[in-house]
Amino acid sequence: MRVLLRERCLIGKLDFADASTLSTAFNRKVVGQVRGTRSGFASSGLVLGRTKTGFLSQNVAQRSRKLANSCKQTPRLDPVLGSVRSYWNSSGDLRSAECGWRNPKFGSAQGSNPQQTQKGTGPRTAQAQQSPVDSVLIQDNAAASSDSAVPDTEAANALPPRQVEEAASTSQSESESNGRGITSQELEADPTYPEAESSSNARSEREDPTKEPGTTTSAEFSVREADERGLSRGDQEYVRELEVATYAVHLACLLSQRIQRDILRDREQAKLKKDQSLVTIADYGVQAVISYILSEAFPQEPLSMVAEESSEALRGREEMPTLRKVVDAVNDCLSNSPLVGLPVPSEPLSTIDVLKAINRGAHEGGKKGRFWVLDPVDGTLGFVRGDQYAVALALVDQGEVVLGVLGCPNLPLRKEWMRYGHRFYRAAEAFFPPEKGLWHKGIVFRARKGGDGAWAEPLISADVTLESVRAQAMRAFVSPVTDPAQATFCEPVEKANSNQSLTAGLAQGLGISTAPLRAYSMAKYGMLAKGDAEIFMKFARGDYKEKIWDHAAGCFIVEEAGGVVTDAGGRPLDFSRGRFLMGLDRGIIASSNPFLHRRLLAALDASYDSSTL
Ligand SMILES: Nc1ncnc2c1ncn2[C@@H]1O[C@H](COP(=O)(O)O)[C@@H](OP(=O)(O)O)[C@H]1O
Ligand SMILES: [Mg+2]
């Protein structure tokens, strides 16, 4: 028997559709299934890796589908990094495979051996018995499938010599040692790790940003070739405001990203505010950074801003450590100002400066004058869960939104990735690291009244310069789909934030057949603006009052990308009535075009009529 190849893989509770998405996005295939128990519950998932063509047999596909159906109710198997080792017989048929991984939660290396895995009944090692995830990779035996039969010589030639090892035997002891968990460092050091292929594919896609919708581009949204900055064309009003706002959002996203990493590493935590909503260092820090940049850039008039946070919760001796962290995060972030072409403050901001900057967000809004509208971290729940969130900034002039910038640091360019939690993306990212500087996630949308529509650009970082951000910027267009049956709708993840049974009924009434795309935050407006979804619906429960900062920037971006946003009565959202969206009829709906919007309004009327009969 041949031991063919040790491969990096991603193991997780994926259903078959997720796995196909993953395989498209990262050029990997479903190579098997994993089953085990965790805390006494059965758990199962699929293993994704790269292997020879033909490995994915009919059989695997069918079994995966069955598995996906049967394990819907089982607890989640967190995605982990692992490796797959495949065993082939002398005629090149796949006999079995084993899988090893290091469970990050329990810190133990784990694995399975081929004898166990094939039968599922073999003797278990002490380690396997004790391990919280009793891992057994059941590899589909594709030997029976002619499409996977690859002659020995071909198999050997297909791989670099050091990847092909003759297995002396498949004895228990060897299997145990081969099946041990592989750390990501070990994998990193392994020159056989097949990352070159995925990187070059991604690059070749990126190099052709002018593909038509429907073809696979790196951005997956309708793209026109980025021309010389849209900022210099058309009406010149709000040009400078948009420029500063965009820089401020880029910079603030760096702060939020750092804090999100700290939260995921348990170095930082969210706290509950008086109204029981979550707040983090990032909410205060982002608000302070954006407020500071805007007031420095427009010193002629005092900054008026309607923003979510106030420094009230930072008062008191016991809050001193939190306040210190906020001040440090703000100064650390502002020290990166040159990345967006802004000067570093001559002196670090003091605690008072930071508190003042936060408190500039207390404006009451209204019909008169100009004011900025900021949600520093929209979707705080998604943020603390390591998922989607948005930094959203808008400018309202005489009661009308005239500019919007929406930073979505975790929004992937490929829409397929939105089908499941961002944790898979993080695992895959760690596992199949994309080429440095490659734009695969993190989008800043921007638009201004009188400009030339909505634009999307990559988030700035240490690896992505401002020039490169500008060079990759592209127009964002809503989806061209008009048939509701082809449409996808998106909505909040949390049932508490929107009535999901109502939206399910409406979707059914419209003939939408795909499951809703659920995502945290205003990233959903971004998804609409780039054509990932055609409809957005949010119907808050009870007497919840929507805030203007939760919609201003996103709503404007969608409209500038060609979409329509109204309340459930078909009226435009009114941002001129204070800090809340007053007079809202039932909920908020957005569509990629007026045709779909009319259909949605009709479905709403029908559902309202039937529910009030
Ligand atoms: N009970 C409720 N009903 C509707 N929206 C709510 C809500 N509680 C909070 N929200 C708003 O929903 C936003 C999150 O949106 P989503 O559910 O789409 O992720 C929250 O933003 P923050 O997280 O900035 O507070 C908050 O403003
Ligand atoms: Mg919000």
Q: Which features characterize this protein?
A:
613 residues, alpha+beta, Fructose-1,6-Bisphosphatase, Chain A, domain 1, eight-stranded antiparallel beta sheet, seven-stranded mixed beta sheet, 19 helices, globular, binds adenosine-3'-5'-diphosphate, binds magnesium ion, hydrolase
Question: Could you explain how this protein is built, in words?
Answer:
Belongs to the inositol monophosphatase superfamily. Residues 222-232 have a biased composition (Basic and acidic residues). It is an enzyme of class 3 (hydrolase). This protein has 613 residues and is α+β, with helices and mostly antiparallel strands. Among the domains are: 2-193, no CATH class; 236-409 and 443-448, Fructose-1,6-Bisphosphatase, subunit A, domain 1 (Fructose-1,6-Bisphosphatase, Chain A, domain 1), CATH 3.30.540. The chain is built from 19 helices and 22 strands. The strands form 4 sheets. Strands 1, 2, 3, 4, 5, 6, 7 and 8 form an 8-stranded antiparallel β-sheet that branches. Strands 11-12-13-14-15-16-17 form a 7-stranded mixed β-sheet, sandwiched between helices. A hairpin with a 5-residue loop joins strand 15 and strand 16. The protein is globular, with a radius of gyration of 26 Å. Mean pLDDT is 72; it is low at 1-5, 34-45, 50-80 and 101-234. It binds adenosine-3'-5'-diphosphate and magnesium ion. Residues 277, 308, 375, 378-380, 382, 492, 494, 496-497, 520-521, 540, 544, 547, 550 line the site of adenosine-3'-5'-diphosphate (A3P).
